[in-house]
Amino acid sequence: MEFAPDTFGTLYADEYDARHNPGTTDESVALISALAGNGRILELAIGTGRMALPLAARGHDIAGVEGSPAMVAKLRAKPGGAGIPVVIGDMADVPVEGRFNHIFLVFNTLFNLTTQAAQIRLFANVREHLAPGGSFLVETFVPDFSGFHENQRMKVRTMDMQSLRFEAVLHDPVAQTLTHQRVRVEDGVAALSPLVLRYAYPAELDLIARLVGLNLTDRWGDWQRGPFTATSRMHVSVYGFPT
Fold it and tell me: Are 153 and 119 in contact (CB under 8 A)?
């Protein structure tokens, strides 16, 4: 599967808000608001505004980058959405003018960049758009292959008398990619929702950050600043300039 910057939005914009709510919005907005203070904020992959709208409502100066015009249209249709500046383009290029005090990328979206080179390019461009003393926050899952057999996994999401939702995933351990096909069968009609992710462990992200001149300053195992441990299934990591 080949994914371009606008592919995710083309596939998922219509159902994104209904089916892609991680349930952590309030605490993630609170943490980012506290980290950003009065500085300028840039959200990469701003999407339909799940994070940006409540941050703007708190009085923050926030702008965004988004690859999908369809996702931006959903943002613009919401109260306050028309007032948030958004550049449509490849988030790895960070195609904006000026510098920001805080840049963030949440909900595993870094992994939508399907090569290591693209992920390095994003970090490098973030570095160029950070003001002195600025910070870059990333939220991703920690890879877990306990449910895989022969580098593949099948999992039923929901099932009743009229519908079935399941997911098939192929793991390429060399490319570090997870190729998903999410299948929905409702009233006898099947629909497919593909997704490709290029995962990275926290240590790899730390190395990428160091390559471009950023250092890890904080890492938590949840949005409440709980400790990151060997059993953590996600992490919130903050990178900044060396001191």
Answer: no
Distance CA 52, CA 28 (A): 11
pLDDT in tens, the chain (243 residues): 567 777 777 777 777 777 778 999 999 999 999 999 999 999 999 999 999 999 999 999 999 999 999 999 999 999 999 999 999 999 999 999 999 999 999 999 999 999 999 999 999 999 999 999 999 999 999 999 999 999 999 999 999 999 999 999 999 999 999 999 999 999 889 999 999 999 999 999 999 999 999 999 999 999 999 999 999 999 999 999 997
DSSP string, 76-142: HTSTTGGGS-EEES-GGG---SS-EEEEEE-TTGGGGS-SHHHHHHHHHHHHHHEEEEEEEEEEEEP
Q: Is 239 helix (H, G, I), strand (E, B) or coil?
A: strand
Q: CA 89, CA 5: separation in Å to the nearest integer?
A: 7
**Cβ burial 28-46 (10 Å sphere, 16+ → b, else e):** bbebbbebbeebbbbbbbb
CA distance 6 to 82: 20
**pTM of the full predicted structure?**
0.94
Is residue 2 within 8 A of residue 179, CB to CB? The reply is no
Question: How far apart, in whole angstroms, are the C-alpha atoms of residue 16 and residue 9?
Answer: 8
